[in-house]
């Protein structure tokens, strides 16, 4: 797949050049399939062959993100309990499979210092642009101090990053057969990112890096990562969070 960024007269040329250099994108006047483009000063992911798909972007100031931050349950959310943020705010967390950064945003809004790791260049560029726009929001002036982006594979990050309190893993999981078409973002991720076939190998280095715990987000129907039973599990509305506390794998 070509990593294309569609040219736009409205985009800042220096910023576009930095995106291309940082994430290995090629600027083009015509793109096909999945590609990055500009819409209302935001970087978006779209597909020329799926006009009904709609644009995908990272917007930490969106209504949904703000609602979850303000009314989503805070420290009582399953993810907060699993990571230990219900007891301590200022935890350092490495989100090794960041995706669109929604879980990282929730963790940061609860006081954690979060490093988002994303290996896919298209998705990493979306995260980078989401952080750029959030920096201009008065309501989110804290965000860039609590959230950082690392464009890297999860395994490389786990092997080379400084120790953190918590490692958070949310590997892509194959969708169930015979289910309805997954929502647009999941379809895009399956097309653009694929599944994390190497997810099982992440658990051991994650345990070595995390000083307190590793948290693995899983669909309710999925088995344990690397077939290793967790210390405990915290069940959310649509997923469960397997927690591995201070135990070598």
Automatic annotation (TrEMBL):
PANTHER family found in the cross-reference section: RIBOSOMAL RNA SMALL SUBUNIT METHYLTRANSFERASE J (PTHR36112)
InterPro entries xrefs: 16SrRNA_methylTrfase_J, SAM-dependent_MTases_sf
Pfam families in the cross-refs: SAM_MT (PF04445)
Function, as annotated: Specifically methylates the guanosine in position 1516 of 16S rRNA.
Catalytic activity: guanosine(1516) in 16S rRNA + S-adenosyl-L-methionine = N(2)-methylguanosine(1516) in 16S rRNA + S-adenosyl-L-homocysteine + H(+)
Molecular function terms from GO: methyltransferase activity
Biological process according to GO: methylation
Residue spans crossing the bilayer: none
Protein's UniProt name: Ribosomal RNA small subunit methyltransferase J
Record has NADP as a keyword: no
Principal place of residence: cytoplasm
Keywords on record: Cytoplasm, Methyltransferase, rRNA processing, S-adenosyl-L-methionine, Transferase
EC number: 2.1.1.242
Annotated positions binding S-adenosyl-L-methionine: 102-103, 118-119, 170
Compartments where located: Cytoplasm
Similarity annotation: Belongs to the methyltransferase superfamily. RsmJ family.
HAMAP family referenced in this protein's UniProt entry, alphabetically: 16SrRNA_methyltr_J
Signal peptide residue numbers: none
